[in-house]
Write a structure and sequence with these properties.
Blueprint lengths: L9 E6 L2 E5 L6 H15 L8 H15 L3 E5 L5 H19 L3 E5 L3 H10 L4 E4 L1 H10 L4 E10 L2 E3 L1 E9 L14 E4 L5 H13 L4 H4 L2 E4 L3 H10 L4 E5 H11 L3 E11 L2 E4 L5 H12 L14 E3 L7 H10 L1
Parallel strand pairs: 3-4, 3-5, 9-10, 9-11
Antiparallel strand pairs: 1-2, 5-13, 6-7, 6-13, 6-14, 8-11, 8-12
Length: 322
């Protein structure tokens, strides 16, 4: 997203022959004198009295527009349409409170988000639990900031569950019926769509490549439920929030076979290059957001300040799944 261009010249006439000039960039004294002279001629000797607030407002506006953009990033956890629509009020609010433009982009793959945070191409990332753990392995100096929350049964929670699911018309009613069926994971970087389901399989000495007739990695949770709904795949692993959304989209066509968890929600982490003051300001804003930013398209209903250590169970799951 392009930054807004600096505002036009703003002049506060404090008295005849004196003009306060406010620009988004520095200008030479000669230009100021020439423009002051032009203003005097145009006023034809009339005195216009304005307050200093006009000048101060212009300076603040231009400082906002010229500040370096704060770049958020998120992996393909939801559709791009939902992300851009749902995050728009949050990005707008942060832009106002932080005094700089704040944007969000969606990476093609989960790994891309980790890479862009490590390389400094993004400032703040929103990561699934496994992606966050892998990020910290690659770039230990990135810092945990917050954990997303969702509301279930009227209560906010900072965790969710993974589900093994199948189409109700598939004839699959139990986990043992999955043998020789086709199965869909999300990505090896997905908590609920791979790592935690794999801990279940490992404990039972199930090797997906030989146990299932076909194993597919769809790249997103949305594609797992879409492919099961269309009959292209027999069963798969996803997380509860996507399952609820899929039922809204396709109807109550999914059979729940097994629940795994709880799994910590997505973590907000900041890149190494971001200064401490900005980190603290972002954390403070996330902890005190107005209700107006939580629209129906935003997947979260709040942010909780936990710690990096709370993701140790995810680290254990990653090791167990390998």
């Amino acid at each position: 997203m392009d930054q807004p261009s600096p505002s036009p010249l703003s002049s506060a006439i404090l008295g005849r022959g004196f003009v306060c000039v406010c620009l988004g960039k520095a200008i030479s004294p000669g230009i100021i004198m020439r423009r002051n002279k032009e203003c005097e001629m145009n006023l034809l000797g009339k005195t216009a009295v304005l307050t200093l607030s006009v000048c101060a407002f212009s300076m603040a506006t231009n400082a906002h527009s010229n500040a370096e953009t704060l770049r958020f990033g998120i992996g393909p956890y939801y559709s791009k349409e939902r992300i851009y629509s749902g995050f728009a009020p949050l990005m707008e609010h942060l832009s106002k409170t932080l005094g700089r433009q704040v944007t969000i982009s969606v990476t093609k793959e989960y790994e891309d988000l980790e890479t862009q945070i490590c390389n400094g191409d993004l400032d703040v990332g929103i990561f699934g639990a496994v992606s966050y753990v892998k990020l910290k392995e690659r770039c230990p100096k990135t810092q945990y900031l917050a954990t997303t929350q969702a509301t279930k049964g009227g209560k906010k929670r900072s965790y969710y569950f993974s589900w093994f699911i199948a189409h109700k018309d598939s004839g699959i009613t139990k986990m043992k019926h999955l043998k020789d069926k086709s199965f869909a994971f999300v990505s090896t970087h997905s908590s609920s769509g791979y790592v935690f389901p794999m801990t279940y399989f490992k404990k039972r000495k199930i090797v997906p490549e030989t146990y299932f007739s076909k194993v597919e990695f769809t790249g997103s949770h949305l594609k797992v439920t879409d492919r099961i709904a269309s009959g292209e795949i027999d069963a798969g692993a996803t997380y509860d929030v996507n399952l609820w959304a899929a039922e809204g989209k396709h109807g109550k066509i999914f059979r729940r076979l097994k629940k795994i968890g709880p799994i910590l929600n997505l973590a907000v982490a900041v890149a190494e290059h971001l200064d401490d003051a900005t980190r603290r300001k972002i954390a403070d804003e996330l902890a005190n957001l107005p209700q107006s930013v939580f629209t129906k398209d935003l997947p979260y209903t709040g942010f909780e300040m936990l710690s990096d250590k709370d993701y140790n169970l995810t680290r254990e799951a990653v090791r167990a799944s390998q």
